[in-house]
Specification:
By secondary structure, the protein is of the alpha/beta class. The chain has a single domain, classed as Ribosomal Protein L13p, Chain: A (Alpha-Beta Complex). The chain is built from five helices and five strands, in the order E-H-E-E-H-H-H-E-E-H. The strands form two sheets. It has a three-stranded parallel beta sheet with strand order 1-2-4. It has a two-stranded antiparallel sheet with strand order 3-5.
Amino acid sequence: MMIIDGTDLILGRMASEVAQKLLAGDSVVIVNAEKVVISGSKETVFAKYKKMRDCGDVYKGPFVSRMPDRLVRRTVRGMLPRKKAKGKEAFGKLSVYIGVPASVKGKPEKLDVTKDRLKNQKYVTVLDLSKWLGAKV
């Protein structure tokens, strides 16, 4: 089991590396999902997710969650072949948590996709996005 601390990691880059590890057969646990960052200005990031939430029907979907752990989990799902057997199996091995639960023991691994790579670009944390979407975190 691989534990990844999401603090200051870029969402898309982290999700692609996690998807590769899942397809290789590893189990992955992401902790501190609310501290993951999304690159881009606040206005563009909020507009993108607002458009995604507003499209569709409340009865038929698509259903996009507001909670930070669910947003991170859905991003990883988008990078997996989820309609194939290997993608479904890989997605089942992913666990995402807000904070660090007591059940997760071990030292988290470091990924080289921190927000330091953004070089003075703007970013938004997943927690800020979730609160703006209306999550009760």
